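Hi everyone, sorry if this is the wrong subforum. Our group has a chain we'd like a structural model of before ordering constructs, and none of us has done structure prediction before. Sequence below.
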Amino acid sequence: MVAFNNSSNGSEAAQVSSLTYSFTVNSGNNRLLLVGTVTYQNSNPHTISAITFNGDSLTNFNSVVWGGGEDDRNELWRMVAPDVATGNVVITPSATPCDIISGAVAYDDVDQTTPLDGSQTATVGTTATSITLTITSAVNDLAFGMVGGFDKAAITVGAGQTQRFERETNDFSNIHGSEEPGAASVTWTTSWTNGSSSPLGANGGNINNAPAGGRTTLNTLAAPLGSHLGRGLWTHGGSG
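Answer:
Right subforum, don't worry. Here is the predicted structure as tokens:
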């Protein structure tokens, strides 16, 4: 069964060339790190060109563009077997300057070959008060979604969900990430009281449980920051 490891409400900064904040991945087998970002740049939402944790690169999972002038962009990035360490999450946009807001969460007992699938995205207009992702999932998995909005007040996660990161700013965008226990099909929903007449976007997918007998990440500590000694160790036997 996919299990929670740790999370952080991350950081935000306006008109920057990169964003850096500290994150801790605790000990646990079959680890997965997720980093969500929302970027804003007037009429030209910049993509994220790279995200690293403790010096190692994450991979983009999905994204969605939203906003009145398509000014904002959500992205969800992932890394299997992140170091057991306190290290920096470093986010680099494709162009600068750029407004960036981010949050992060780590899980244990995740399939290391296909950690995420079932990509879903959605957008809603200025009068909406909720947004929904319908995620194909399974028992022992987790359905995960993140939402980006501008000046949205009183964000409320759906029934049965657990919020893992939330960061709000009055200057530009907000970001929220939450999970829901897996089932054949999960309706992941976030609702709010409008703080302004702004659109909103959501993206997410299914976090797959590590199969018995599958590849298992050894629960080893990372070498010091900047060193790659001791990484990439694997064994067989699985974690259910």
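For your construct planning: Confidence is low (pLDDT under 50) at residues 226-240. The chain has one domain: 3-211.
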